[in-house]
């Protein structure tokens, strides 16, 4: 019964809009099936080039994220040092930042007048890959680190006692134990890289178009629904395959995870032992994660005459009538919408997690739950543009005429945030020893009492990190919101995009200032969520 409400929500506000949009593309003007047009799109040289570019970016972004993220997982989750919780939260902030803002920040760093402009990487494949790593570094760090900190150190200690070097002990003992978490993180990163939208739009232009940007182009610029539908089908195939692989890897990772009272795999940081991973992590955090954001802050405090706060003062205005409402109004709108979306995503995500975390004895039941888990992960990889445009063409008539309703945007953002909530709560519930429930039931506790006394404490703590991800994601969501936001109720990412696209130093300066405000909001949200994170909630 707990699965029916989330399934109905996903059916009405995800499956129906996406299926309707795809279905319209396959129907010709006379009501027949337009397969010829679809076949010509899939077989065209342009489509092949776009698919090749998408896979190239996804493979390079995934490889770089994994190679750089494993040392970060060790430093931030296995080593204990003052300020570790703050460092974890700050590393997570890039994952939830608006993609448009990050694209502009990287252009500012790598542009002709940026601090790294001499490298000549502006609007290059390397620049896009760096931006993808910027977003997805936290996935590898949190997923691998969450398991690494729980590994029993005695196996490694035994290997060392038998004469193995630190390198050999890591390769033969630790790395195989981490393989499920690494595979799970790599699949998710591949999925996010393959479906990247804002970064490629800002940094790639027409030279590095991907499936995601091509769907947007065919839908909004050419109104070619058959082409957009064909590309959406290709994207859905990639997403479905990735999610099935991620579900299998996630299950293996969670079976290796145990809730323990102590973090047995952790140890105090030592420069002599940990200098290698520390140097790599420091270079990534300072050079790749911090530099674009520092550049963003500095540019927001300067104009042609020098240092100034005028860009922040402009947030209380319509920035020379470039906007229909002041920027502070958009900030308030974003906070209200994010709170509504967070509550909705938490309720639905909790119900899904409680169902999927069960352990049926029958093989059919276990397969059904794995399938259910994969179904609720689908919004992670389906184009937000497809979801937003699908809302416009389906939720515009009874029985669900929500065109003028203020709940339309929170619903769309809840669809996007729901998979992250499930991924935050589910590892906690799955890691609970089932014998605790069996003992409580043997002692006479009712199913409701077992749920309250055994699952409840862990569930509440897992909901903290889930709420953090949901709210931060909602604050920065741009793809679907750009279709749905009304002129008199814009959200902050929509306002930033409008300001960036208008000429003039005042507009760009206000966009930078608004971006800094949004980054601070997401940082605060993730910092609070990090402090309530239970030991088993290290995975996304």
Automatic annotation (TrEMBL):
* Organism name: Nostocoides vanveenii
The entry's localization annotation reads: Cell inner membrane; Cell membrane
UniProt xrefs under InterPro entries: MetI-like, MetI-like_sf
Q: How does it sit in the membrane?
A: Multi-pass membrane protein
Q: Which UniProt keywords apply?
A: Cell inner membrane, Cell membrane, Membrane, Transmembrane, Transmembrane helix, Transport
The text of the family note is: Belongs to the binding-protein-dependent transport system permease family.
Q: Where are the transmembrane segments?
A: 55-77, 89-113, 125-148, 169-202, 227-249, 279-298, 335-356, 368-393, 405-426, 508-529
Q: Where is the ABC transmembrane type-1 domain?
A: 51-246, 331-529
Query: What name appears for this protein in its UniProt entry?
Result: Iron ABC transporter permease
Q: One Pfam family this chain carries? A: BPD_transp_1
């Amino acid at each position: 019964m707990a699965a029916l409400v989330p399934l109905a929500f996903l059916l009405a506000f995800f499956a129906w809009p996406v299926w309707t949009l795809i279905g319209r593309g396959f129907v010709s003007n006379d009501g027949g099936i337009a397969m010829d047009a679809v076949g010509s799109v899939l077989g065209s040289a342009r489509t092949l080039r776009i698919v090749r570019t998408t896979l190239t970016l996804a493979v390079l972004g995934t490889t770089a994220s994994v190679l750089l993220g494993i040392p970060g997982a060790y430093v931030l989750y296995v080593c204990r040092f003052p300020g570790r919780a703050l460092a974890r939260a700050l590393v997570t902030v890039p994952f939830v930042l608006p993609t448009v803002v990050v694209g502009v920040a990287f252009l500012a760093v790598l542009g002709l007048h940026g601090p790294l402009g001499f490298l000549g990487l502006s609007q290059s494949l390397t620049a896009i890959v760096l931006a993808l790593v910027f977003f997805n570094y936290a996935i590898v760090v949190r997923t691998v680190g969450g398991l690494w900190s729980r590994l029993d150190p005695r196996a490694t200690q035994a290997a060392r006692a038998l004469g193995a070097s630190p390198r050999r002990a890591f390769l033969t003992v630790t790395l195989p134990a981490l393989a499920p978490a690494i595979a799970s993180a790599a699949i998710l990163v591949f999925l996010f890289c393959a479906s990247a939208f804002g970064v490629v739009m800002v940094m790639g232009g027409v030279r590095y178009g991907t499936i995601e940007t091509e769907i947007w182009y065919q839908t909004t610029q050419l109104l070619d629904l058959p082409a957009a539908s064909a590309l959406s089908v290709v994207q859905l195939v990639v997403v479905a395959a990735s999610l099935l692989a991620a579900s299998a890897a996630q299950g293996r990772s969670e079976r290796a995870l145990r809730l323990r009272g102590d973090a047995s795999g952790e140890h105090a940081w030592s420069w002599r032992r940990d200098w290698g991973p520390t140097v790599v992590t420091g270079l990534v955090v300072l050079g790749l994660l911090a530099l674009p954001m520092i550049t963003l802050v500095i540019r927001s405090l300067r104009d042609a005459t020098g240092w100034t706060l005028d860009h922040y003062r402009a947030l209380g205005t319509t920035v020379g009538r470039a906007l229909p409402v002041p920027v502070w109004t958009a900030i308030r709108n974003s906070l209200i919408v994010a709170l509504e979306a967070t509550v909705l995503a938490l309720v639905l995500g909790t119900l899904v997690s409680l169902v999927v975390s069960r352990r049926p004895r029958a093989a059919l039941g276990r397969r059904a739950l794995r399938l259910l888990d994969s179904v609720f992960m689908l919004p992670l990889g389906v184009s937000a543009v497809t979801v937003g445009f699908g809302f416009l063409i389906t939720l515009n008539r009874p029985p669900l005429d929500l065109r003028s309703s203020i709940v339309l945007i929170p619903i769309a953002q809840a669809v996007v945030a729901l998979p992250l909530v499930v991924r935050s709560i589910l590892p906690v519930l799955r890691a609970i020893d089932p014998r605790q429930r069996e003992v409580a039931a043997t002692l006479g506790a009712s199913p409701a009492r077992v749920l309250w006394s055994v699952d409840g404490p862990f569930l509440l703590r897992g909901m903290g990190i889930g709420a953090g991800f949901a709210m931060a994601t909602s604050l920065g969501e741009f793809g679907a919101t750009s279709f749905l936001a009304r002129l008199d109720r814009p959200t902050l990412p929509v306002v930033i995009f409008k300001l960036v696209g208008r000429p003039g130093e005042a507009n760009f300066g206000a966009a930078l200032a608004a971006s800094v405000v949004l980054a601070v909001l997401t940082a605060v949200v993730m910092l609070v969520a990090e402090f309530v994170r239970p030991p088993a909630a290290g995975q996304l």
